[in-house]
Amino acid sequence: MDTDLLSDTFVDLADTMVADFDVIDFLHLLTDRTVQLLGAAAAGVVLADPRGELRVAAASSEKAGLVELFQLQNDQGPCLDCFRTGRPVTANDLTGPDQQWPRFAQAATQAGFRTVEAVPMRLRDQIIGALNLFRAEPGTFAAADLRIAQALADVATIGLLHERNVRRSETVAEQLQAALNSRVMIEQAKGKLAERYGIDMERAFTMLRAHARNTNQHLTDVARDLVTGGTAEFPPARRQPHR
Predict the structure, then answer these.
(1) Which of 55, 80, 175, 213 has the fewest CB atoms in 10 Å of its CB?
(2) Are the C-beta atoms of residues 91 and 115 closer than 8 Å to each other?
(3) Contacts of residue 145, Cβ cutoff 8 Å, sequence gap at least 6
């Protein structure tokens, strides 16, 4: 494991007190670094809205995001059980017999995932969501890796809740709702970029995020400008060949 990257990640996740803190970019940092550090194929984050219903907040790949969405829409899967119990949940071979979540297992394996580990995003009795790790191979994650995954989820949770407690203009639930609404705007912007340049959704998100960072803007603001017909200009992108 890259110990320098691990140290940098904990520092980055704890640094939520900046004036231009961007929740969506923060959550994508969490999923991206989790994949890099733990050798997962993908990672995702689901957060609870004010009614306590889970929604997809971030994913390191389109496939992972779709699998997360599938389990929420079908009300079955490890992340739901993790959120409801506040405990880690493991699915170590989704192709095996007697699946606990048969519809989810089928969808996940079709997406190329055979192992899922869900760890709660919680602070004492307050559970705000779950961090989910996906692997292409069957078998559990190493115990040390799971401890790191839980530590990353804990630091991210503390950072999110602390940032909201300091900025008391809205309640925690309202701010989480705002973050989830931002996710919808970003998905719309990704679709628009994908259609404009003939690229896939992952490439579109990479372009969107890079533009936000290069122009020192919030990811949500760039997405909103694009969706509402603003003047944001993106560098030319090579069209992907039709298959």
Answers:
(1) 213
(2) yes
(3) 38, 39
The values of phi and psi at residue 80, to 5°, are -65, -45
Count of CA atoms in the C-beta half-sphere (13 A) of 67: 33
The answer to whether the CB of 102 falls within 8 A of the CB of 27 is no
**184 vs 123, residue with greater confidence:** 123
Domain span at 123: 3-169
pLDDT for 240: 46
**Which of 147, 169, 191 marks a domain boundary?**
169
Contact 164, 172 (CB under 8 A): yes
For residue 243, the one-letter residue type is: R
* Structure-block tokens of residue 128: 């705000």
pLDDT exceeds cutoff 60 at 236: no
Closest CA to 36 of 9, 67, 15: 9
Is the distance from CB of 34 to CB of 131 less than 8 angstroms?
Answer: yes
Structure confidence at residue 234 (pLDDT): 65
Residues β-bridged to residue 42:
134
For the cut 80, the answer to whether the pLDDT of residue 163 exceeds it is no
* DSSP classification of residue 94: T
Q: Which two tokens stand for residue 9?
A: 């990640």
Domains identified in the chain, total number: 2
The pLDDT of residue 11 is 83
Whole-number Å distance between alpha carbons of 208 and 189: 8
d(CA 58, CA 26): 9
Closest C-alpha among 183, 206, 196 to residue 229: 196
Predicted TM-score (pTM) of this structure: 0.68
